[in-house]
Design goal:
It is a single chain. With about 120 residues, the chain is mainly α. It has five helices and no strands. Helix 1 crosses helix 5 and helix 4 packs antiparallel against helix 5. The longest helix has 23 residues. The chain is elongated and about 45 Å long.
Length: about 120
């Protein structure tokens, strides 16, 4: 394995575990990154004008894609699905922050993780 392979594995771990943390461990936690003045993930979706059902749907997609991304450490052919799928959802997160006129710093985690996923995808082709 080359140094880039180790970097890609590390990035997959960072992104995958972080997404799982946000959606499975800390969805009820208030953070400075949440849209508007939301105190939890459900309030954040409400700020964006989205339903609780849609929140569950996006959560399912993000958790599934994070698990696919983590699985791609062993099954490399899954990397494109996980990384591009998460990149698309994270782009949606950025658009939602912009749509409700959040301060730009609130979009930073989504922008950073989208960029990392695009980097992973680039090296997975």
């Amino acid at each position: 394995m080359t140094i880039i392979d180790y970097i890609i594995i590390t990035l997959k771990l960072i992104v995958g575990i972080s997404i799982l943390n946000v959606w499975l461990i800390q969805p009820q936690k208030a953070t400075k990154w949440r849209g508007g003045n939301a105190k939890n993930i459900f309030e954040e979706f409400r700020v964006y004008g989205l339903s609780k059902s849609f929140c569950y749907f996006i959560g399912f997609l993000k958790v599934s894609l994070a698990l696919i991304l983590l699985s791609s450490i062993y099954f490399e052919n899954l990397a494109i699905i996980g990384s591009l799928g998460l990149a698309a959802l994270l782009l949606g997160s950025i658009i939602m922050h912009l749509r409700v006129k959040d301060a730009l710093y609130k979009s930073f985690p989504a922008f950073l993780f989208m960029s990392i996923n695009l980097f992973i995808a680039y090296y997975s082709f």
